[in-house]
Each structure stands twice: as C-alpha cells, then as structure tokens.
Amino acid sequence: MPRMGTHPSQQRADAGIAVAPRPMRRRARRIDVARVGIYAFLIAAALFFLTPLYIMVVTSLKSMDEIRQGFLFALPEHFTIEPWRAAWSEVCTGVSCDGIRTGFWNSVMIVVPSVIFPILIGAINGYALSFWRTRAADWLFAMLLLGAFIPAQVMIYPLVKVLAAASLFSSLPGIVVIHVIFSMPVMTLLFRNYYASLPQELFKAARIDGGGFWRIFLQLMLPMSTPIMIVGAIMQVTGVWNDYIFGLVFAGRENLPMTVQLNNVINTTTGERLYNVNMAATILTSLVPLLVYFVSGRWFVRGIAAGAVKG
Fold first, then answer.
1. pLDDT 10s digits, 209-221
2. What are the boundaries of each domain within the chain?
3. Integer Cα distance of 99 and 92 in angstroms
4. I need a labelling partner for 133 at 20 to 30 A (CA). Which of 91, 108, 285, 302 fits?
5. CATH dotted code for 101-306
6. Is the full-model pTM beyond 0.85?
7. Which residues in 226-242 are b (16+ Cβ under 10 Å) and which e?
8. Cα dihedral sign, 184-185-188-194
C-alpha cells in the first residue's frame, strides 16, 4: 500500500510503476558583455597586425603584371618565388647588386657576440647587486637604470669620438661594443630582479660551505638562470637585429646589417619600382625575429614571470 502523505510520484514508485525523470530546466545563458568585448578587441587587434603581413606575403608572390591590376587582397593567380630569389641575391643595395644576403651574414656576425656578452655581463652585475651588496650597490644600480632612459641619439656623437680614438669606429668590434654598452642597463635589471626572487637560503648555504663569488655564480646561480637567460637572448636578438641607427653610424660600409641594406633596397630606384621584390626583402629581413618569437615565446613569458616576484 502506498504511504499516506507522500508525493504522487513517490507513490507510483512505491507501487512499482516506472516514473519518467522530470526534465531539468535549462538556465538561460546570459551574454557576458565583458567577455564579448574582450574577444572582439583581440580579433580586431589580430586583424590589424596580420592584414599588413598578409598583403606583404601575397604581393611578394605575384608578378608585377598582377600587381598593376590593383587587386591588393587577391591571392596570386600564378605563384612565383622569383621576387624572393631576386631579393636574396640580385637586388641592388646601393652601388652593389648582390642582394641582401651580405647584410644577413653581417647581421649574424653582429648579433651573436652582441647577445652572448651582454647576457654574461648582465648576469654577473645582477648577481653582484643581489647577493654581494655594498654601500654603493644602490647608487650603481640607479646609474645603470638611468642609462636605460637616456635617448641613444644624445650619445651618438660622443661615442663616435671615443670609438674613433680607440680605432674601433666603422668596424665589427665597434658596433658590438655599442650594443653591449646600451644593453647593460636592461640586462642588469632583468638578472637582478630574477636573482632577488631566489631564496636567500641557497646563497647563505653556499657561503657556509665555503663558496666564493665565482664558484657560487658558476656552479649555483648560472645553472638556475636558464629562464631569464632566454628572455635576455630574445630581447637582444630582436633589438640588435632590428637596429638601424647604430648599424648605419658605427658598423662601417663593410659591415652594414640587414636593416640598413633593406633601407637601401627600398629607396634605390632605377626605372620601375619592384614592389614584389621589396616585400620579399622586407619579409626576409624580419624573418629571424619572427622565428625567435614563434619558437621561444612561451619561454619568454615564463622568464618574465619568474623575475617578477619581487625586485
């Protein structure tokens, strides 16, 4: 017998009658205006930055006859890599017509030492200012930090005089020295903040075990510096590779980087302006920083976050 005072559905269940489950009411999803706005902004920003890249790529794969038709966003009817070959090995960069490959190898020879030396020196400076503090440490750090905000144009003429007196002007070592000098404030700031976020107990334990300045740095601190070293390398590669003014002033005619030669390609006109070749040369010049970011972008975020705990 069904129990008195129970719900009818419960009575049917007690009687052995199958009861269909009651449908649950779906909650109406409310439109999150903030989230829609964020996605709209991100999509608009992506289109803003990707549209010029798309135009450059499709233009570099077209012939000049197609470009004259004026369909800027249209895909090439007949794909051709001839503009890329011409940009690499034939286009005129001033008086010479050897392409931008010479500037590419010049940029490589400038970038490699301009990445290695600032990172090593910045790591030593940051380590010294974080763990081996002296009375003048704060003043020295303030002076280095001040150098990051002084416009480079203010110091070009004094540096020209100094490098000329040292017989380094218009040479490969001269342009490397310039990049090392101007990268010191930022590299020191990065490594100092990173080392300051590490537990002080590690340093104190190493001191108790008899470790000196260089032993602690080489055997303890440097192996733990991989994230911030990757950050420094990314910043240096992109900064030095994209540099124009220092390469133009200090590198000399035989060591002009790729950016200076790209400017010569764009501004050198003998007859018809070859837009497809110009676009191909521009993409080739920016290819190294793009690859660096695509390959190690996640390491960049990790390294920045690791050094942002305290500073």
1. 888 888 888 888 8
2. 33-80, 101-306
3. 6
4. 302
5. 1.10.3720.10
6. no
7. ebbbbbbbbbbbbbbbb
8. negative
